[in-house]
Design brief:
single chain, alpha/beta, six-stranded mixed sheet, three-stranded antiparallel sheet, 10 helices, 13 strands, 39% helix, globular
Length: 362
């Protein structure tokens, strides 16, 4: 029978009071953009409404955070700030929430379908070819083949007897993740920036732990565009900005030009059309998002990325039909991809697309 089966809720009693509160603390820190005092205010309100503490109080929890080096006092303003250790815990939590817990056996599993001179051995064997290295030769198999071909009494080994272990080539991928921080990311009663931050933190943790040879750069764009570090992600906030997609693309292209990897891509998380460019040293803005000059310049950059073999995958987290025409035009110019995603499905889309792009040469 199709349906839901309900059972009595049983609280997890295996976790310590500190661990239970830490989960809540890390979650709220993303929503408050790293504001420790605001996070504790929220926790106090939740405690008053739902009794989340007992003998172990929020003051005890705060002291333990400091004792475990998860909180520090900033000497400049004497305020509590989280440490780099806490920032990493926030990223790991985002990774667990969005991508699921990675199995240790999956580490390094990012091969292409191409076989050749690589750095990861396979179980396949093939005859020796000019250019193969000494280290690739399987001597056990080569001796066996020589005995079969020439016999034991007249044993000799020729080039035709040599067998080598086939290897697979692992791609290295350079990615720029563009995040829209224009004002519309928090308009209409919907918080779009927090899911975008969570995805960025999860992707950053995923790449740095599973694919350490890959690179990830984060670019945020509003009226202008600038690069942020991975450690800055929990603190991102939306500003009173228009959407200068051109500035974001220009900075992303500049970052990718410096990468030695031949495989490059741009992921762009946005919720609307471009509404701003810089013209003659000044902001040229059109809040309606229908300005031909702004749209044409954005599409032209998408075409330039195509010539540079930089595919752009656009994740549109607003599903308004009027936005789709521009996204389709932009995607066609780049020969890229576009996903019209709700907030809940954003992480799965990005994770799947990153994995697909790792398995082929872009």
């Amino acid at each position: 029978m199709i349906g839901f089966r309900f059972s009595e809720f049983k609280e997890d009693t295996t976790q310590s009071p500190f661990d239970r509160l830490l989960k809540l603390f890390l979650e709220l820190m993303t929503y408050t953009s790293g504001d420790v005092e605001e996070t504790f205010d929220w926790m106090k309100q939740l405690d008053a409404a739902h009794n989340i503490t007992d003998d172990y109080t929020l003051d005890d929890f705060r002291k333990d955070l400091e004792r475990k080096s998860l909180l520090r006092i900033d000497p400049k303003d004497s305020k509590s700030k989280i440490t780099s250790k806490t920032e990493q815990l926030i990223r790991k939590r985002a990774l667990d929430q969005i991508f699921g817990k990675l199995k240790k056996g999956d580490a390094g599993n990012h091969q292409t379908k191409h076989i050749g001179k690589g750095d990861e051995a396979t179980t396949d064997k093939r005859p020796f070819q000019f250019g193969d290295t000494f280290e690739q030769i399987d001597f056990t198999e080569s001796f066996r083949k020589a005995q079969i071909n020439h016999g034991i009494d007249d044993f000799r080994m020729t080039e035709d007897d040599l067998e080598v272990v086939e290897s697979s080539h692992k791609t290295q991928l350079s990615t720029v993740l563009m995040i829209d921080i224009s004002h519309s990311m928090i308009l209409y009663g919907e918080d779009r920036i927090t899911p975008a931050k969570k995805v960025a933190m999860a992707l950053a943790e995923f790449i740095t732990t599973r694919y350490p040879k890959d690179s990830l750069d984060i670019v945020v764009f509003g009226n202008d565009a600038w690069q942020v570090q991975i450690k800055d992600l929990p603190y991102l906030t939306v500003g009173p900005y228009h959407t200068n997609t051109v500035a974001g693309l220009e900075l992303s292209m500049d970052l990718l030009r410096r990468k030695k990897s031949s495989n490059k891509q741009i992921f762009m998380i946005t919720d609307g059309k471009p509404t701003c460019i810089i013209k003659n040293g000044e902001y040229y803005q059109n809040s309606w998002g229908q300005d031909p000059e702004i749209l044409n310049k954005t599409v032209n950059l998408a075409a330039q990325c195509r010539k540079l073999k930089i595919p752009i995958t656009t994740f549109m987290i607003a599903e308004d039909p009027y936005l789709q025409k521009f996204v389709e035009q932009f995607t066609e110019a780049n020969n890229g991809k576009a996903f019209y995603s709700g907030l809940d499905g954003l992480g799965n889309f990005i994770f799947s697309d990153y994995e697909r792009n790792k398995k082929r040469t872009i």
